[in-house]
Amino acid sequence: MSCRIEIAQAQDAAAILGLIRGLAEYERLSHEVVATESDLRRTLFGPRPAAETLLAYPADAPAGAGGGSGSGGTPVGFALYFTSYSTFLGRAGIYLEDLFVLPAHRGQGFGRALFSRVAQIAVERDAGRMEWSVLDWNEPALKFYRAMGAQPMSEWTVQRLTGAALRRAAQSP
Q1: Which domains does the chain have, with CATH numbers?
Q2: Parallel/antiparallel/unpaired status of strands 91-101 and 77-86
């Protein structure tokens, strides 16, 4: 099946949130989703967007000016990414935060199209690299990324601060 990739617009916040919830359910993390449509409109489409989002549609879904769900189509997948930076390379990069396709639409090329479009954007922007994280149990995703030429960074461990721990770190001398 062929697909269409569009840049998300503010009117797509509800569709994006639905896809985020689908991703969280797949990753067994639904309890962690606290984002709202308002949060997404503010942080993705406000004066200082924190990230960019692409939406995947079946090629025969309606398209219109401005694209996205505002055009009448329903997205079946999304990719959300933002600019990172490599001090070693002295260049910006792309960090792929999320790539998700609804289960009923997997294996039809939507994920590959989204991933390839993000890679194209990285090349267009002269990015030094494109990176992302994958849950270690997600073998279908790991297989997909290996097929795309990805190399695991097994010597690195992801670290995170949230909530009270983040606030405590902010107050440390």
Answers
A1: 3-171 (3.40.630.30)
A2: antiparallel
Do 73 and 86 meet the contact criterion of CB atoms below 8 Å apart? no
Between CA 79 and CA 57 the distance in angstroms is 12
pLDDT band for 65, please (50, 70, 90 cuts): very low
147-171 tens-digit pLDDT: 999 999 989 988 989 899 999 999 9
pTM of the model: 0.90
What 3 state SS string does the chain have?
CCEEEEECCHHHHHHHHHHHHHHHHHCCCHHHCCCCHHHHHHHHHCCCCCCEEEEEEECCCCCCCCCCHHHCCCCCEEEEEEEEEECCCCEEEEEEEEEEECHHHCCCCHHHHHHHHHHHHHHHCCCCCEEECCCCCCHHHHHHHHHCCCCCCCCCCCCCCCHHHHHHHHHCC
Catalytic residue annotation: 145
pLDDT digits (tens, 9 = 90+) for 75-133: 999 999 999 999 999 999 999 999 999 999 999 999 999 999 999 999 999 999 999 99
**In angstroms, how far is CA 9 from the centroid of its own chain?**
14
Residue type, 100: F
Contact present, 163 and 34 (Cβ < 8 Å): no
